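Summary for the lay section of the report: proteins are chains of building blocks that fold into shapes. Here we show the chain for Glycerol-3-phosphate acyltransferase and then a coded description of the shape we predicted for it.
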Amino acid sequence: MRVFQGVYSLILTFLRKILFLWVRTDVSGNDPETLGIDPDKPVCYVLQYASLSSRLVLEQEVLNAGLPGAASSLPVKNGPNHSFFFLYGRSGGRLRRRRTPAQTSEFRALVHHGLEHPDQEVQIVPVSLFWGRSPDKEKSLVKLVLSDSWSVAGRLQKLLIILLHGRSTYVQFNAPLSLQQVVSEYRHSQERANRKLARILRTHFRRVRQAVLGPDLSHRRTLVGGLIRTPAVKEAIRETAVEQDMKPEKVRIKAYKYADEIAASMSIVTIRFLEVVLAWLWNRIYKGIAVNNIRVAKEAAQDNAVVYVPCHRSHIDYLLLSYVLYKNGLMPPHIAAGINLNMPIVGPILRRGGAFFMRRSFKDNPLYATVFNEYMHVMFSRGYSVEYFVEGGRSRTGRMLQPRPGMLSMTVRSFLRDHRKPIVFVPVYFGYEKVMEGRSYLGELRGKKKEKENIFTLAKTVRKLSNSFGQVAVNFGDPIPLAKVLDEVHPDWRQEAYDAEYRPHWLNDAVSELSDRVASHINASVAVNPIGLTATALLGAERLAMDEVQLTRLMDQYADLLRAYPYADTVTLPEGNGQDWVAYCENMGLITRKPQKLGDIIALEGSNAILMTYYRNNIQHLFALPSLIASLFENKQSLNRDKIEFLAGVAYPYLKSELFLRYHTDEIADVINRWVDVLVDKGLLFEEANGQISRPEEGTDAMLRLRVLSRFIIQTLERYHIAIGVLRRYGSGKVTAEELEDQCTLLAERMSILFGLNAPEFFDKTLFRNFISSLQSNDVVTKNENGLLCYSDALDEVAEDARLVLSVEKRQAIQQVTMLGA
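The coded shape description reads as follows.
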């Protein structure tokens, strides 16, 4: 018997060597620490369906990863190196084409062992294996035969699959299950214990398969044709025909063209081609891709329709997220792309990579809006993963833009119509050390007209591929279940009936809350990098220059602040120290070194001084509260805690609205006090015996640190003071919000010239618009029946408190232009 086992083992080893002459694997989760395996307890690996080829791949990957091996006490022992079993084998004759899966004898023996030996734990590690990763295409025999799918392949089909897709095999190890925890409640019934463990494993494999392969896809022509036959689109066709005096058939053809223009045509061939091209691209232009918290996406994809909501910094965002998801065993999402990207050559590739195209505005085209809404509803109700940018366009300033409600509203309305499939939003933050479009953003910030995307601008971008853009981070934030948000906004939403056109009265509140939560979760998953820290410190310097030793020390101390009171668990910080970060920025060509006998000077010069505001703005929100507290001591030697809490609390709602800070207004008092304690602990403030909080003495290193810290947020507060000053100049009920925006922008532009401010967002009209809107939301300002802004004495109190943070020169400049007294 022992001789037979030895021969059998040699045969399997030989077959494994032969198989891996062809097969190439991409493996996920095979690190023992990641799996969380206890080395002191026996391990048994489980595959879903009996297959010699799958067994050979599993054996090889277990050996490659050095995972724990077999235990002699287990009834399942497949050789000297490991233990594994199949959940299901085959029953029926060899000549039958389809055989019903049945529990294997090894599976039943393991359950029996667990019942007989309650003191012996066994760790069951589920392993999922995919020979190629392709979504099914209805009516496509080639895809059904030649790709791994939801169905169980026969021997001939499996051979063809291995031959065609063996070089893109994906293996995923998952966290172990405890055998004793599963069977403990069924000590006297093995059959029930068998059913429970089988059900748990079956559910697990189904979730992983859905996450990796995605739901079954309809043929694109079938999908497009089906959209035109939905009741909502039929009704829109009838209404359009009447309103525009057109024949219904012509309107139907137009609706079909709209659907054809919109719909994606995801192709696994294109996805695999893009994977190879993008792997080459990333290696060429980046020094690496750091992926953090991918676990969130993997867990969300198993039971939900996932909506990925990334920040939008670059056109690279589209490709980067799909690549990261695919490399980590998840199906790339369908991506909402602007119709401007549907250009020759590029458009068809993006469409086959999962992009669906949308026009900038639906306002004057109800037929198009209905077709697009129905397409989105199909995506969500069938469980597809979708990606869209809530900001609408790319951020030219490096800040998170105000979310646009359109796509979020469509998602909510679709979910209300059919909420059988849960929807979960997964925020994603892209942290670029050097954004590819940086120089074009610089031109736009200086007033240059935005270039339209076309094949020629693409050619210009290709020329940049010889440059290095540092490292890029892809951070996944905490998930947001849509049902939970609706429960908080309108607890009875499940009891109401909804159709395609119905908009409940509370919809705007739900979308507003969802928008705020998505934006704040994206910002809470920010990746701090050396460029951002260097930019933040240098832009806080008086002349945008600093002694190198002083700069490196400041950067270390500000990084320590972020560690002392972490903004969120999903924020990532760079490795190394200030000295490493300065050297890195110099190597990237973003800072200038000026040698000097008393010590080198590090400075920002020319266009880099403006460009670095982009990278400072990426992380500005992390320092918003400590910087706000520091700014209160700009013109005050000391303040008591209550005054600090009050003043910071007054400013916080506006900072929260602009920077999408994560703290609720109800908890901000505790957060402010915590930050005061941290600043005292770090020596930036001092607590006197009488409870007063004091700033350091002038000329000390601590005072320099405090002053530079205050400058991180001071321009934002100055902008608020400008808006309030202009409004008070006009008086209550004398100016519209639009007129106020224009006047604030002109004054801010003037101050930018007078004081040499290198922050283009200082006179950004959108930021003034948001601040004015926040004043209205907080009932400090109201609109009368004529649309004019009215205010009470409360605005004067806000203006008086704001004076604490402004220097004398800037107060006088604002007062001079707004003709306000001292």
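Put simply, here is one thing we learned. Residues 93-99, 135-146 have pLDDT under 50 and may be disordered.
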